[in-house]
TrEMBL record:
Residues 292-414 form the ABC3 transporter permease C-terminal domain. One of its GO terms (molecular function) is transmembrane transporter activity. It is a multi-pass membrane protein. Residues 20-242 form the MacB-like periplasmic core domain. This is FtsX-like permease family protein. The lineage of its organism: Bacteria, Pseudomonadati, Bacteroidota, Bacteroidia, Bacteroidales.
Length: 420
């Protein structure tokens, strides 16, 4: 019986091609737009390699320096290394703290020792805790050692793409390369990292001890960001209390300026929407905005689909009347109409899921600001629960817009139904 209903539904799609295509595309576009928004949210907030600890990672990325006497604003920037060492590294509520200096606007030229092959590469200056906070897939070798970091030895971990560009292979541990004509020894090679992993992403990672960077404004301001991996059971509020106490102790040692870490430490979602800004992150506004957008994206296609389905049902009044005249029950007619719309919704849902994936790939430079790279999108970035929720919403709407007229028509007098 179910197979027969499916065959009838497919036949009805063929008989009303225009309306069927519009119904399928309406459902597909609604689901596609919702999934694109959700994917943008997921890739910026959910955990995936190498940022597998986003759920318990907090961020201190900016600091404001003010005058001690007049409290006037002097500078607003990333953190200076002295501030990091005195206020971030000693945090007892942290399992690990890493400092990162990554300039996305000033890449360096990585080249082979003979200078015949080179590649513009983005460099991250960091520490040994970086490899504990983030989990990379090493193809060969490993991170630079604590001893090498402390000594300022010029070791480098490079991505697979850089290794292939310079040497034609990823088995290059122990070989040397140049970064802007300065020689580095390669100690490890990792798989390419998606740019969605904004804190961990780079193409070459080297110890920040290879250069002298004391910051400015008495060590308050500089070019570093801190990622703090919380100990199990420690909350962001507890960490903030401890961090503020460390900042007060730091300010007691400065002469003319004082540091203000604003609303930080920030959670992953707060960092994404501007947790390090002067005004902090407003999560309530974010959720309200997303809710309104999703509601509109569902409502507009839903109203169109309802009108199309209702129009189609009115055109079939005579057909339903004839079926009743030949003995079809109200339940049989109602189930057949609903099954036809279920098939349309299913086709639209599957098409919408495929379209959402395609949209993210084709429009990645616009939607995501930056290229996804080789390891951009993955199926793990798709939220199955949201897809099912959007699909069920469209299904219920389609069934309601078709089922209610069908139920009303099935209760009409047979003669009235045949006469339309």
């Amino acid at each position: 019986m179910i197979k027969q209903y499916i065959k009838q539904a497919l036949r009805m799609i063929g008989e009303n091609k225009l309306l069927s295509v519009i119904s399928i595309l309406g459902t597909a576009l609604a689901i596609c737009m919702i999934m694109v928004i959700v994917i943008l949210y997921v890739v910026n907030t959910a955990s995936f390699k190498p940022e597998v600890n986003r759920g318990r990672t907090c961020y201190i990325t900016t600091v404001m320096s003010n005058g001690k006497d007049d409290n006037r604003r002097i500078s607003y920037s990333s953190l200076g290394l002295p501030l990091v060492k005195e206020c971030c590294y000693p945090l007892k509520g942290a399992e690990a703290v890493t400092a990162i200096n990554m300039d996305r606007y000033r890449p360096l030229t990585a080249s082979s020792m003979d200078g015949l092959k080179n590649r513009t590469s983005y460099i991250s200056y960091t520490d040994t805790a970086f490899w504990k906070v983030f989990q990379f897939d090493f193809l060969q070798g490993g991170p630079f050692s604590p001893a090498a970091f402390t000594s300022g030895i010029r070791n480098a971990v490079i991505s697979e793409s850089v290794a292939l560009a310079l040497f034609g292979t990823d088995q290059v541990v122990g070989r040397e390369m140049k970064l802007d004509f300065i020689v580095y020894n390669i100690c490890g090679v990792v798989k390419d990292v998606s740019r969605f992993a904004s804190k961990a992403w780079a193409e070459v990672w080297i110890p920040y001890t290879v250069r002298d960077d004391g910051g400015y404004q008495e060590g308050i301001n500089g070019s570093y960001s801190c990622c703090v991996l919380l100990k199990p059971g420690v909350t962001r509020e507890e960490l903030r209390t401890e961090a503020l106490r460390k900042v007060e102790e730091f300010n007691a040692k400065t002469r003319d300026v004082k540091a203000d870490i604003l609303h930080q430490p920030s959670t992953q979602i707060e960092e994404w929407i501007g947790g390090g800004s002067e005004f902090g992150a407003n999560l309530f506004y974010l959720y309200v905005r997303y809710g309104i957008i999703l509601f509109i994206l569902l409502l507009v296609p839903a109203l169109n689909l309802s009108g199309i389905t209702l129009s189609r049902m009115r055109r079939r009044m005579a057909e339903l009347g004839v079926r009743r005249a030949f003995g079809a029950t109200q339940g049989t007619i109602l189930w057949q109409v609903l099954s036809e719309n279920m098939v349309l919704t299913l086709l639209g849902g599957l098409l919408g899921l495929a379209m959402s994936y395609g949209a993210m790939l084709l429009l990645r430079d616009w939607l995501l600001v930056t290229s996804l790279g080789k390891t951009g999108l993955s199926t793990g970035m798709f939220n199955g629960a949201v897809f099912i929720a959007a699909f069920l919403f469209c299904l219920v709407l389609n069934l309601f817009s078709a089922g209610l007229p069908a139920w009303r028509m099935s209760r009409l007098n047979i003669t009235d139904s045949i006469n339309g």
